[in-house]
Amino acid sequence: MMRYAILAVGVLLFGCGAPEAPLVASDVEITRPMPGRNMSAGFLVLANNTDADIRITAVTSPQFGAVELHETTIDDGISRMRELDELVIPARGSVTLERGGKHLMLMRAQDIGDAVTLQLLSDDVPVLSIDYVFPGEQD
Ligand SMILES: [Cu+2]
């Protein structure tokens, strides 16, 4: 039985009539805020099916007041997060956002029901919309 569904829709920015979407998200996972907290993290793989680099410069979500691109690094054994200005998905390549590495920081959670929508933007132009449904809440 399908317990969750991930729908990724590419917006036609990088050429018409292409059989595959220019930018594809997979392995999407969004954490729920801890009790009493209003912050979540997002992990996913972004694959670029075009011959040009794709720069993600902003991410928005109606369920969160702010979304930042972060990277976790270890300095002298201490884990730190820094904000990235942009995320570049190389032509015909992919970028993995994962625990301990690059990730989405979803802040100021508002009314989170059973789903989260993310909008990825490149210089204010929407390039990918991701609908994530929390697992195990469909029944
Ligand atoms: Cu972070």
Detail the topology: elements first, then pairings:
Layout: E1 6-10, E2 23-30, E3 40-48, E4 54-56, E5 58-60, E6 64-75, E7 78-83, E8 87-89, E9 94-97, E10 102-109, E11 115-122, E12 125-133
Antiparallel strand pairs: 1-12, 2-3, 3-9, 3-10, 4-8, 5-11, 6-7, 6-10, 11-12
Bound molecules: copper (II) ion (CU).
How would you characterize the overall build of this protein?
The structure is a single chain. This protein has 139 residues and is mainly β. Helix content is 0%, strand content 56%. The chain has strands spanning 6-10, 23-30, 40-48, 54-56, 58-60, 64-75, 78-83, 87-89, 94-97, 102-109, 115-122, 125-133. The N and C termini lie close together (10 Å). The relative contact order is 0.28. Copper (II) ion (CU) binds at residues 70, 81, 103, 105. Residues 70, 81, 103, 105 line the site of copper (II) ion.
Quick summary:
This protein has 139 residues and is mainly beta.
Features:
mainly beta, binds copper (II) ion, 0% helix, globular, disordered N terminus, six-stranded antiparallel sheet, four-stranded antiparallel sheet, 139 residues
So how many helices?
0
**Helix-strand topology string:** EEEEEEEEEEEE
Strand % is over 45%
Relative helix content: under 10%
Radius of gyration of CA atoms, rounded to a whole number: 15 Å
